[in-house]
C-alpha cells in the first residue's frame, strides 16, 4: 500500500463504525474514569438542564445519555462515580490464557531452532503477552519485524494495536498495512509518522496536519524520532527488506466475525473486542459499585442534638456542638408531647448483601458473554485444592475461547517469524547458516498438571508397558533437549541394572527370561 499523498485526507481513514467502537473499547481498557466521562458524557449533553431531553431521544445520543457514564454530574456536586477495571482484567486474563507460558516454535533446522529459542528468550515472549492483551481489548493486534542497529545487530518483533493500523485485506488475509503514530500535537498542528509494510519493502513518511486530516508530507529530518530513518531510506522514502517474498507484518484478529461490521466490506478482515456487547454490563457494574459506596458514605454515624445542647458563640455568631463537653443545663420548662430526645443518632443501613449479589451477577454475565468461565476470574469455588482435570472441566468455556484465539495467533506468529528469518538471511543482515522456513507454533497448556499428577500418569503408562523410557522422560521434562533426554535415559538404565543385574544377564545371575524353579537353585528337584 503506497503512502497517501497528503492534503485534506481524513486520518485515520477508518470506517466511522469501526473507529467509534475501537475508541469506546480503548476508553474501557484504559480504566480511566476521566476517559470514560469524556467518551460518553461529551457525546451526549455537556450541560445539565432541568429536564434532560437527551434521555428521551432515540438513537445513539439517547442511549449514551441514559448510561451511567453518560450522565453528567450536577453543577456544584462532587463526582462520586467509581470505576471497576473489569475490562482490563478481561484483557489480561485473555493474554495469560494464551501466552502465560511461551509458545514453542519448532523448525527442522538446528541452527534456526537455536535462533528461535534465542528470540523467545530475548523479548518475543513479553511482546506476545502485550499483543494478546491489546488484541483482546481493541479487537486485534499486529506483529511486525523491526530493527535498529544502534540497539541490536539483529532484528526483532514488535506489536501494534489494531487502532493504530490501516490494513488492506484480500479475502480476509493481510495484503499490506500502514502503521501510524502521533509524534506531536500542540492543539492545532499534528505531526504523524506513517510506516507502510508491503512485500519486500517498508516505506516511511512524516506528515504535518490537523487532528482530523493528514496534511502535507514533510522531510523525515523535521522530527527527532524520524531523523535517523532519513539516512536509511532511498529516494522514494523506502527501505528494501531483502526478503522480497515476505510481508514484514502479520495480523492476529481477536475474534471473527465482528458482529458490528460484518457487512462493511473494508472491515471484514478485522476482529472484534472481548468487550463487544458487554459495555452496558460493565457500565452497570460501575453504577452498582458507586451506589454501594454511596451507601457507605450515607451510613456514617451522625447525631441530631437539641437546641439546648448547643453552645452559643456570641451575639450573631450562632451556636456550636462541643462533643467533649460532659455537663449541660436543660431549659426550665415542661416537656411537650412529641419533643425529640436531646440527642438522636442517625445511621442508615449499608445494603451489603444486595449490592454484593448484584455486582457478582453482573460480573458473571459480563465475563460469560466475553467468552470466559466465571471460575477463571475467581468468581466461584470454595478454595479447596483441585486437579488440573477439574480445573479444565470448570473452565471449559475459557479453554474453548483460548483454543479459538490460538487459531488466529498461530498463523500470525508463524508468518512474522518466517519473515524475520528471511530478513536476517537476506542481504541486509547476511546471517550465515539460517534456514528460511515456516515454523510450527505449539501453544503450551495454560493449566499445568502438578508433579504428583504427572508422576501418576507416568507410573500407569510404565506398568501398562505403553510407553518407552524416552517417552516417559519427555513427559516429565517437556522442555529438555534431545541430548538431555538421552543422558537421562542412560542414567535410568544404569541405575536399573545396578539395582537388578538380572535384567542385564550379568555374571552369576540367570539370563533374562529364566524363571525360578527351571533348573535353578530353588527348583523342587533339588
Give structural notes.
37% of the residues lie in helices and 16% in strands. The protein starts with 6 loop residues before the first strand and ends in a 27-residue tail after the last helix. Strand 8 and strand 9 form a beta hairpin. By secondary structure, it is of the alpha+beta class. The relative contact order is 0.11. The chain is flat and about 105 Å long. The strands form five sheets. Strands 1, 5, 6, 7, 8, 9 and 10 form a seven-stranded antiparallel β-sheet that branches. The longest helix is centred in the C-terminal third of the chain and has 30 residues, at 396-425. It contains 13 helices and 16 strands.
Describe the protein's topology.
Layout: E1 7-10, H1 16-30, H2 33-41, H3 59-66, H4 86-99, E2 104-106, H5 110-138, E3 140-146, E4 156-161, E5 165-170, E6 173-185, E7 190-198, E8 201-209, E9 213-218, H6 227-230, E10 238-240, E11 249-253, H7 279-298, E12 302-305, E13 311-312, E14 319-320, E15 343-346, H8 352-369, H9 388-394, H10 396-425, E16 440-442, H11 451-463, H12 469-476, H13 482-499
Helix pairs in contact: 1-2, 4-5, 7-8, 11-12, 12-13
- Spell out the helices and strands N to C: EHHHHEHEEEEEEEHEEHEEEEHHHEHHH
Distance between the termini: 93 Å
Q: Detail the poorly predicted runs.
A: 44-52, 54-62, 505-526
Which geometry do the CA atoms define?
A: flat
Main β sheet profile: 7 strands, antiparallel
From the alpha-carbon coordinates, what is the Rg to the nearest angstrom?
A: 34 Å
Strand residue percentage: 15-25%
Average of the residue pLDDT scores: 84
**Strand segment count:** 16
Which bin fits the share of residues in helices? Answer: 25-40%
Q: Indicate the structural class.
A: alpha+beta
Counted by DSSP, the helix tally is 13
Amino acid at each position: 500500500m503506497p503512502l497517501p499523498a497528503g492534503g485534506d485526507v481524513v486520518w485515520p481513514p477508518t470506517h466511522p463504525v469501526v473507529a467509534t467502537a475501537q475508541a469506546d473499547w480503548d476508553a474501557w481498557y484504559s480504566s480511566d474514569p476521566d476517559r470514560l466521562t469524556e467518551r460518553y458524557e461529551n457525546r451526549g449533553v455537556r450541560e445539565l438542564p432541568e429536564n434532560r431531553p437527551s434521555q428521551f431521544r432515540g438513537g445513539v445520543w439517547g442511549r449514551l445519555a441514559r448510561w451511567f457514564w453518560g450522565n453528567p454530574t450536577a453543577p456544584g456536586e462532587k463526582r462520586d462515580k467509581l470505576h471497576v477495571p473489569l475490562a482490563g482484567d478481561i484483557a489480561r486474563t485473555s493474554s495469560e490464557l494464551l501466552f502465560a507460558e511461551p509458545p514453542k516454535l519448532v523448525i527442522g533446522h538446528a541452527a534456526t531452532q537455536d535462533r528461535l529459542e534465542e528470540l523467545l528468550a530475548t523479548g518475543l515472549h513479553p511482546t506476545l503477552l502485550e499483543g494478546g492483551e491489546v488484541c483482546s481489548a481493541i479487537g486485534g493486534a499486529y506483529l511486525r519485524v523491526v530493527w535498529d542497529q544502534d540497539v541490536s545487530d539483529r532484528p526483532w518483533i514488535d506489536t501494534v494495536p489494531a487502532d493504530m493500523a490501516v490494513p488492506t485485506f484480500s479475502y480476509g488475509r493481510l495484503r499490506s498495512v500502514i502503521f501510524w503514530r502521533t509524534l506531536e500535537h500542540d492543539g492545532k498542528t499534528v505531526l504523524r509518522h506513517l510506516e507502510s509494510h508491503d512485500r519486500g519493502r517498508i516505506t516511511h513518511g512524516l506528515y504535518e496536519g490537523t487532528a482530523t486530516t493528514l496534511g502535507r508530507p514533510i522531510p523525515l529530518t523535521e522530527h527527532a524520532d524520524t531523523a535517523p530513518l532519513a539516512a536509511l531510506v532511498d529516494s522514494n522514502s523506502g527501505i528494501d527488506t531483502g526478503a522480497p517474498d515476505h510481508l514484514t507484518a502479520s495480523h492476529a484478529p481477536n475474534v471473527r466475525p465482528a458482529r458490528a461490521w460484518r457487512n462493511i466490506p473494508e472491515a471484514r478482515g478485522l476482529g472484534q473486542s472481548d468487550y463487544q456487547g458487554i459495555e452496558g454490563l460493565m457500565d452497570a457494574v460501575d453504577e452498582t459499585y458507586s451506589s454501594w459506596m454511596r451507601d457507605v458514605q450515607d451510613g456514617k454515624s451522625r447525631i441530631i442534638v437539641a437546641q439546648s445542647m448547643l453552645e452559643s458563640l456570641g451575639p450573631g455568631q450562632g451556636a456550636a456542638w462541643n462533643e467533649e463537653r460532659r455537663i449541660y443545663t436543660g431549659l426550665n420548662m415542661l416537656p411537650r408531647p412529641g419533643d425529640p430526645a436531646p440527642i438522636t443518632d442517625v445511621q442508615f443501613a449499608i445494603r451489603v448483601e444486595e449490592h454484593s449479589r448484584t455486582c457478582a451477577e453482573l460480573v458473571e454475565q459480563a465475563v460469560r458473554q466475553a467468552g470466559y468461565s466465571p471460575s477463571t476470574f475467581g468468581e466461584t469455588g470454595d478454595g479447596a485444592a483441585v486437579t488440573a482435570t477439574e480445573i479444565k472441566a470448570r473452565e471449559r468455556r475459557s479453554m474453548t475461547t483460548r483454543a479459538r484465539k490460538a487459531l488466529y495467533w498461530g498463523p500470525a506468529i508463524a508468518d512474522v517469524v518466517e519473515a524475520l528469518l528471511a530478513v536476517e538471511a537476506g542481504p541486509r543482515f547476511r546471517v550465515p547458516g539460517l534456514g528460511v522456513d515456516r515454523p510450527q507454533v505449539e501453544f503450551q497448556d495454560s493449566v499445568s498438571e502438578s508433579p504428583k499428577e504427572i508422576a501418576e500418569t507416568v507410573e500407569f503408562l510404565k506398568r501398562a508397558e505403553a510407553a518407552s523410557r524416552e517417552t516417559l522422560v519427555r513427559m516429565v521434562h517437556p522442555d529438555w533437549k534431545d541430548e538431555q533426554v538421552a543422558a537421562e535415559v542412560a542414567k535410568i538404565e544404569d541405575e536399573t541394572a545396578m539395582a537388578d543385574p538380572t535384567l542385564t544377564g550379568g555374571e552369576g545371575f540367570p539370563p533374562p527370561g529364566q524363571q525360578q524353579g527351571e533348573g535353578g537353585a530353588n527348583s523342587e528337584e533339588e
